[in-house]
Amino acid sequence: MAHNVVERNNVTIIGEGEIPIVFAHGFGCDQNMWRFITPALKENFKIILFDYVGSGNSDISAYKTNRYCSLEGYVQDVLDIIHALDLDEVIFVGHSVSSIIGALASIEEPQKFEHLIMIGPSPCYLNDPPEYFGGFDRSTIEELLQLMEKNYIGWAEFFAPEMMKNEDKPELTEELEESFCSTDPVIAHQFAKTTFLADNREDLSEIEVPVLIIQCEDDSIAPLHVGKYVHAQINESTFEVLPTNGHCPHMTDPELTIEAIDNYLEPNLATS
């Protein structure tokens, strides 16, 4: 089982420390997106990187539509890895949709998690006026999903710069676009549908472990007010706003992201 999961999810383990920190990539990405963050943590942590089934260099033959038609399939990927590596007191760092995937995993097995770190989380991308504005009307999401089906490369060319939002770093936008295009379009469309139509607002209050929310000042995918909403709904959470743009600060502004993680973990780990 352990061997199969490690291969299935292309698990990579680095670092000299004993404290396990699991990094989970967002939609359309893979574990390589964490490469600007991990060197700063290698000395003190046991770093676990992986690709969700259907992403990166995972075993694509393990992809089953009925498993990954909801976020629960991705939650199971996370729990499978934690069990296969026999991890406890996990610090889970999730980007974008993985913030919610990690939250759901922690609700299912809270004893396995010590902290959650959410980068650009959104429990619901759809607007639900007048109480909630996730940033997207349903018609906009449906148009994006239709574009993915009809012209996947065109969708990638449109969505990558919107997500990265750092025109002065075109190489990162190109990398993200290439990552989108390297994913099987059918799998990517299903993951997008699962991500952008999900509504996990009611789950936030069930999170039992402490949470750090890292939010960019200007993020059109997960706007600032969404981060504030997540913070308000979680019993024990810290909210850190980075003075930067886009949805991928771990790539565009790794120093700021590392500083936010360090500032949060150092006092918390010292008292744990």
UniProtKB/TrEMBL annotation:
Gene3D superfamilies: alpha/beta hydrolase. It comes from the Bacteria. Residues 20-254 form the AB hydrolase-1 domain. It holds the Pfam family Abhydrolase_1. Belongs to the AB hydrolase superfamily. PANTHER family: ESTERASE-RELATED. This is Sigma-B regulation protein RsbQ. It comes from Fodinibius salinus. The lineage of its organism: Bacteria, Pseudomonadati, Balneolota, Balneolia, Balneolales.
